[in-house]
């Protein structure tokens, strides 16, 4: 017999568990099907553990630079066993808390691999046998993503010489000459980690013409400048064509406008993005349309099959596949199923964040997009060299604001520098509320603080420039 719930959620990552917690909080009965660990990629292989690595890397970087601040210390290297233990403690603590939250709200977590049978039914293969669960009000698809492999000769993943971010989470050694294929978030973050840990040479290869290619052109240029200063080699506009493995070494052949080049390293990390996990899940057979593996939805996250919703990494562009976006997606679906009024998500208002050094945070339009669309705009770039708090931290970068012509609403906020991933939250508020530069110029930012740079950029656009 089928177990009946108000809502059945297939996948326990950020989108799935946020939907479960909100739905349960609204009084719905919820089954959450997860074949591995609740928390998904973000908690166990992505957002959380990589940021633990980056925290370790920041400590290493500050230790080497401590004399600048009058502190005598010596950097003696990285103890990978302890780094991995620290990372795992952070992950396990969060995992335990999440399990407690789900249990406390009465969510029935079913361990097993689920398949969609029809618009209301999920069949789960568990250790105890097959179990059928029914969602009387709906089913949510939240099956997440996995790293993409690169389809080039010799680049088959082996976990030692050719890896993805999944294997990097548990790598026992610190690579000395890693080659990173891809310069989006995963690529630039691991390049930062290994470089700050003291690798001899880190090299990034990116097919597009700049690092973090979907970001504002000035953010791309600033990151390239800082990476060069840090000793990270970059090859943009370059395509990897062949990988050769040797004894503890890899050789990667790349092609660019400069011709063919061979890079030597002790590890190749493939960081070219993630693919949706939808194959073999019964989606198409049940009537859910797929597009290149993604699940198309309307602006209320409804799939082509009535009563079935989708959230998280299985959504196609313009959804961004970011954990904080999937939280909001989960909330939207839960509230919709519960009968509450909901509003579509403005995908341009989703903050994009990169935790490399320097950090990058952005929201809204970038300058290339405004030009391509023929939108008239004003802009200002406030350098962090003019911010006293950033000076204390030896921080580089800027805050760039784009606004409609002649004091039109703010169209984009782009930050590069210390704590940009935290500061961009204010940028989201400014963009989402369609604030004018003159509106933001009236706000008072604490002094001395990094947030002053946000205020200064808007002061300049409002014709009230202070510093700089």
Write the layout of secondary structure elements.
Blueprint (H helix, E strand, L loop, with lengths): L2 E8 L3 H12 L4 E5 L5 H5 L2 H18 L15 H25 L3 E4 L1 E6 L2 E6 L2 E13 L3 E3 L14 E2 L1 H4 L9 E4 L3 H12 L6 E4 L10 H14 L2 E4 L2 E7 L4 E7 L2 E7 L1 E4 L3 E3 L6 H4 L21 E3 L12 H15 L14 E3 L4 E6 L2 H7 L3 E7 L4 H5 L5 E7 L5 E8 L2 H13 L4 H5 L10 H10 L7
Helix pairs in contact: 1-9, 3-4, 3-6
Plain-language structure description:
With 468 residues, this protein is of the alpha/beta class. The chain has three domains: 3-147 and 275-347, 3-Layer(bba) Sandwich (FAD/NAD(P)-binding domain); 162-272, FAD/NAD(P)-binding domain (3-Layer(bba) Sandwich), CATH 3.50.50; 358-461, 2-Layer Sandwich (Enolase-like, domain 1), CATH 3.30.390. It is 32% helix and 26% strand. The strands form five sheets. Strands 1, 2, 3, 4, 5, 6 and 17 form a seven-stranded mixed beta sheet that branches. It has a five-stranded parallel beta sheet with strand order 8-15-9-10-11. The chain has a five-stranded antiparallel beta sheet with strand order 18-19-22-21-20, with helices on both faces. The longest helix has 25 residues, at 80-104. The chain is globular, with a radius of gyration of 23 Å.
Provide keyphrases for this structure.
Enolase-like, domain 1; FAD/NAD(P)-binding domain; 3 domains; 468 residues; five-stranded parallel beta sheet; seven-stranded mixed beta sheet
**Beta content:** 25-35%
Tally of alpha and pi helices: 14
- Per CATH, the class of the largest domain reads Alpha Beta
- The structural domain count equals 3
What's the main sheet like?
Answer: 7 strands, mixed
Low-confidence stretches: none
CATH superfamily (homologous) name of the largest domain: FAD/NAD(P)-binding domain
Tally of extended strands?
Answer: 22
Work out the radius of gyration. 23 Å
Distance between the termini: 71 Å
